[in-house]
Amino acid sequence: MSRHTIIIDLDNCMFDTHGTEGPKGCFYPEVREVIASIADKHKLVLLTFSNNRSRQWEKIMSGDVAHFFWMIDIVEEGAGKFPVMDALKRIPSPHGSKSIIVVGDRLDQEILHANVLGYTSVRVRRGKYRTLEPKSQYQVPEHTITNFRELLPILQ
Q1: Could you tell me the domains of the chain?
Q2: Exposure string (b/e) for 45-63, b if CB count within 10 Å is 16 or more?
C-alpha cells in the first residue's frame, strides 16, 4: 500500500528547462534515481502545464521516468480560471488530503494551491523561479529543497 500520493511538477523541479544548473533541456542528475527509489512506496503523479503536449511528452520520455508514475497529467495552460487548483483536486488519494504531497517550484502556483487545499507543500528552489519569495502566508512552503535527494527524509 502506498503511504503518500506525491504530485510532482515537471519543469524546473525535475527537468532543467532553462539550463540554470547545466545543459538546457535535461533532467537534473539525481531525479531518476530518487524517483526510482520512491515509486514502489508511494503513488507518484507527474503534473505539468503546457500548450505543447508533444514537447512535454518528449521531455518526460527523455528521462526514462514515465513508467514510475501512476498518473501523468499534462494540463493546457489557461485551462479554466484556476488550472493548478483544478488539476490538484482531480487527483484522488485514498488516505485523504494529509497524505498528499505537492512538489513544485512556483510559490504562486503549486505551493499556494497545495497549502489552500491542506496538502503538504514542498518547494524545489531551482530553475527560473528559485529567487522568488513568498508574498503571502499561503505561499510559504512546509519544506524547501534544492536537490531532489532532499525529498527522501521528508517522506520518512
Answers
A1: 5-154 (3.40.50.1000)
A2: bbbbbbeeeeebeebbeeb
